[in-house]
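Most newcomers find our protein records easier to grasp once they have seen one. A learned vocabulary of local backbone shapes supplies the integers on the structure line. Here is such a record, shown just as it appears in the course material:
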Amino acid sequence: MNKIDTIIFDLGGVLIDWNPEYVFIDVFNGNKEKMRWFLDNVCTLDWNENQDAGSLIEDANKTLINKFPEFENEIKQYYGRWVEMLGGPIEETVTILDKLIKTNAYKIVALTNWSAETFPVALNMFEFLHWFDGIVVSGEEKTRKPFNKIYNITLERFNITPENAIFIDDNLRNINAANNLGIHGIHFESPSKLIQQLKTYNIHL
């Protein structure tokens, strides 16, 4: 195995707790069935990923409101109350990040699917986002995971050799895409499991 010299972190679901349900359980007055239908059929994850890939929030709202005019108020709350979808840092993973950085043994970067319009809010909220050697934000690049382009942007920008890099993401789809480019992938399920998975690459914390 090549020597690992770079570790690439996803953000949402790995280092930052993010969930639209935090807002919409309130919007639908605790009715989980109505909330679930709305998130599965109106403000879907696919729709959100369009903004992660560079679509403007204002345009996204207009398109969806035209399609579902009866949900205009609820649609506007998706990004209007977006900050409330952030549940805070996943502290145990932030501790792992801190320990990896303090080894001075690895280049540490982030690769995130995130709207360019909302990412500055996260930068202000989470100090640890400033610890990275660099962050590739999908909305700024006008592409997103799992498309090859954003992985190649990351590799080229930070002079990363795929075989020497680990990519940590909670979405298996994104891990598989990284694997196809020769990057070692770790499917994030929990901080404690991540510690064990890193040991398989001879990274001990």
Observations:
- The radius of gyration is 18 Å.
- Strands lie at 6-9, 16-18, 86-89, 107-112, 134-137, 165-169, 184-187.
- The chain has a mean pLDDT of 97.
